[in-house]
Amino acid sequence: LAKTTQPISMDSYEGQEVNITCSHNNIATNDYITWYQQFPSQGPRFIIQGYKTKVTNEVASLFIPADRKSSTLSLPRVSLSDTAVYYCLVGERGGSQGNLIFGKGTKLSVKP
Amino acid sequence: DTAVSQTPKYLVTQMGNDKSIKCEQNLGHDTMYWYKQDSKKFLKIMFSYNNKELIINETVPNRFSPKSPDKAHLNLHINSLELGDSAVYFCASSQGVLGGGNTIYFGEGSWLTVV
């Protein structure tokens, strides 16, 4: 089971780009990297998932280096509404315990 | 058209009472989960059912009993409530076992306060 490590908290200002890095040194060959976002008083929701290189969607980008031992979630031009906790999970797409283990996440605070 | 819905959203009850939280998903998923998020915001899995069969039962007191009448429903019954049971309980579902199918969908949470 690949363990993930993220910063506990980050601060940013509106309009800035925010990069949150997650370490997963013992990621397995079949593991994917999935990020979730949790707003206060809501359940977590899927943001993005990737296996290698770069993935981009309408919400964020995910950068994964060749060794896959870390990944970086990039949020372009954040707004106050991006204040949330962001979780990084590592597990097999077909199903594994890693897909279910939410660590403490990174609490992002966006200030005006 | 909420994907994963749970009721009640808020519940305040006294120690020693028995209470239930209901969950339903309309995504056609085979697997459902219960998570607990305590005051320190740590989100921890409690149970998982796949096609009405229990497949994950983490170290949870046996006062907690999940029940799945069909694969679209997973209810959580808690006996003899204690102060430490106060938390937010999230129901979730996924297409496959152990989060298979790319993503887990969460409900809005049920805020349980035991006084």
Describe the structure.
The complex is a heterodimer of chains A (112) and B (115). Helices cover 0% and strands 48% of the residues of chain A. Chain A is mainly beta and 112 residues long. Chain A is globular and about 40 Å long. Chain B is globular, with a radius of gyration of 13 Å. In chain B, the strands form 2 sheets. In chain B, strands 2, 4, 5, 6, 9, 10 and 11 form a 7-stranded mixed beta sheet that branches. In chain B, strands 1-3-8-7 form a 4-stranded antiparallel beta sheet, with no helix packed on it. Chain B is built from no helices and 11 strands. At the A-B interface, strand 3, strand 4 and strand 8 of A face strand 5, strand 9 and strand 10 of B.
Can you tag this structure with a few keywords?
heterodimer, A: about 110 residues, mainly beta, 5-stranded mixed sheet, 4-stranded antiparallel sheet, 9 strands, globular, B: 7-stranded mixed sheet
Can you give me a brief rundown of this structure?
Chain A is mostly beta strands and 112 residues long.
Give me the number of helical elements of chain A: 0
Report the major sheet of chain B: 7 strands, mixed
Give the structural class of chain B.
mainly beta
Strand content of chain A is over 45%
Could you give the distance between the termini of chain A?
Answer: 39 Å
Tally of DSSP β-strands of chain A = 9
Into which percent range does the helicity of residues of chain A fall? Answer: under 10%
**Beta-strand percentage range of chain B:** over 45%
Secondary-structure element string of chain A: EEEEEEEEE
Structural class of the secondary structure composition of chain A?
Answer: mainly beta
Query: What average pLDDT do the residues of chain A reach?
Result: 94
Low-confidence stretches of chain B are: none
Say what oligomer this is.
heterodimer
Distance between the termini of chain B: 34 Å
